[in-house]
Structures are given as structure tokens and as C-alpha cells.
Amino acid sequence: MPLDDGDALVLHHDVGKTIDSIRRFSAHDAAAFESFYAESMLLLREVIGPMRSSAPLPADERRALLSRSARGRRYLELEAQSPLELVRSLFEHEAVRAAVLFNIATRAYLPLLKTRGTGYIVPVALAAMLNTAIHPGGGGRAAAALEGAATDAGATIVTGASVARIDVQGDRATGVTLADGRTLRATRFVCSSLPPPLTFGRLLDDHSHDDYRWQQDSIFGVHLALREPPRYRVPELGSALNVCVGGTSSDAWERACDDVLGGRVPELALQTSVPTQFDPSRAPAGHATAFAWQLVPREPAARWESDVESNAFASAMLDRWRTFAPNLGDAEIAHAIHSPLDTARTVPSMVLGDRHHGSYHPDNFDDRRPDYATPIRGLYLCGSSCYPGGSFTGLPGYNAATRIAVDLGLTAWWTPQDARTALGKLA
Question: Where a domain ends, among 95, 116, 133?
Fold first, then answer.
């Protein structure tokens, strides 16, 4: 994170180096980070991970189980707070606070920074911020790997075939009809990765989920082809996977939260990255690819229908980036804009650019997230609208598969996780 005074706070994969970097700004925060990072890893392994790797427990049962152990009570204590108040209570220096809040915001929690009951995201973000990675060859290669695993297991994947409706006879899902008129029959079940308003509203003409709680922010992206990588005024930033340009105080992130909730575009705080620094296969030798993402309100989406508005916003983002990487302008070969509307057009399930298929507000999380099993027999949900939500984890699908196996009396070839057992073992 470059700072306006010419310095920079740099976090590393190596925890010790990160603590040393933080110590340059605050000895208190270095000690606090070391302690809370260790605690976060424990919570992730013993509490958060097991809970997310199984269907959500009913709220009262979950609280009762967690209340029996010191580790569980600590989790409840952290969860009860808002991310903003928890970060401010942990750290004193604004640069350290801002770096943590940046990592929280980019995980789709910007609208919830001031919402109590979401403090659990702080240990999640803290544990993840030193352990990020990219897939060699790009995200498409990861999708290809999943496709290969599925076909190796006997699956048939049909692409370019839009589903027009889910077919139901009586109270049971019996298959799907494609837009070209073909019908695929289901002998056991139908599973949809679309969020409920699309699964039911678009494919079943059931609009009882039209009041679904969507995510309140989205991403406006600028993707660049470069003759050379950005050269930062602080050279160490050139080897970072992510660089936060702007948003250097907790006040800035609080204002950004208020702006998004109010439908206003926040002041620029960019997530920037140069993937070719870690995966040279993404560009010709000596060249680079890069991107800048800005969190913006999901609505009103009409603001991005104008190319003039979108181009002007993209130019402002690049101007801000050049403040810290002056060669960016001369290095640019071309750039492409990707607005929330572009996201929705490319991935229709991300309505108006909702990249997580629904808000993480407490009213729409844990056992309040849509169930894997629907009221229609044989119809299941398995996408990011289900617990524990979006990001590249596979957990909603994993949990849905476990539920389907149990319902159909199938023997799972994996070992299903059991949150009750895991929480019951906590000390």
C-alpha cells in the first residue's frame, strides 16, 4: 500500500517479514498483528473452516455449541462486532488499519464494514491476506481443470446451451428444457447454481424470491496490456501481487462504505495487480498484463450505460495509479473497461454485477442463506447464493453435494464434514 508521503506498507507471504514491516509504523500494531494472525489461523482451522464445510447450523444450536468452549466464545465475541470497530480496536496506525480494511472490502464486505454481526470476516481476511495466490494461465485454466475432473468422473458437459426452464411434474423436478427446444430428463435430481430469483423467477415463473437481498457493491475494472510492468516510486511494490492505490485510512474506508450504501461512487481506492509478475505466460516476453478494480455501488447500474461516463471513470482510475507508478502511461498498449453491466452481460447470474450472488448481511447469512434443498422435490441449489457464499472455494457445491447424497441415500466418495462434531471438540 503506497502512502501519500512517499512511504509504503508492504505485507509479505512470510509472517515475520510482515510483522517487521508493520513495526516500522507501530510497535503496538506489530505485536497486535502477530498475536491476532496466530489466533485467526486457529479460528480458521478449528471454527470457521469446519462451519463453512458443512450445512449451516440453526442459529440457536450454533450459538449453544460455540458457547461451550473458550475458542467458540471468542469467535462469538469477534463476530458480534462490526469489521470497522474491530479493526480500530486492534490496531492504532491508520496505514495498518487501512491495509486490513482493504482486504476485507475486496471480499465483498465494503457495504458491511459498519454492520455488527459480521466481525468474523476480520480473522478470515487477516488469515487470507498473507496467503493469496493466482492460477497459472489464468482463471480459465482453473475452470478447465474442474471440467476435466468432472468428465473424468463420467460427467457430460453441454456448453452454449441456455436453460429456458426447469420442468416440474406435480411437486417434483423432472429435468430442464433448453432454449433450442431440447429436453434433458433427470432421473434423480436437478441442481441449479443460479441464485433463487433466477432459478425460480426465470426458470419456474415463481417470483416469490424477487425481494432477495443482493450485494450492494460491485466492481468497475480496467484491464491493461503493457510494454513493461508498472515501476513504482517505492520499488518493493513491484513484487506485490496486490497493491492498494488510495484508501490509506480507516476514515476513507468508512466514507467508502457510506457512499456505496448511498448509491454514490466512493473516492478512488484501487485494487491493482500485475499477474505477469508471477505468471509470465500471460503476455509476450518482456510485456505485462495488469488490472485495476474499483468498488462501486451496484445500483443505479444505468450510470455505466454511457461509454463517455465509463471512459472518463477509467481515465481517472489510471491517472490515480500513475501517481504511484509514473511509467504506466507510456507502458500502455491498450486497455479494456469492464463495468458492472459488462459483468452482468458476460455472467448473467451476477445480476447487475453481483459477484457473490447475494449480500453477506447477517439477515442473509448462515442459516438465513438459501437452503440447498428447495421446496420442489429433486430440485437443489448449489451456487454462491448458498452458504457459505462466493469466492473460489467450491464450498457451496461441496455442501450441496453432501445434502443431495444424504437425501438420495447415496454413499459419498468423500468424507463429509460435520460442524456439530467439530464445534463439540473445541476446548
Answer: 133
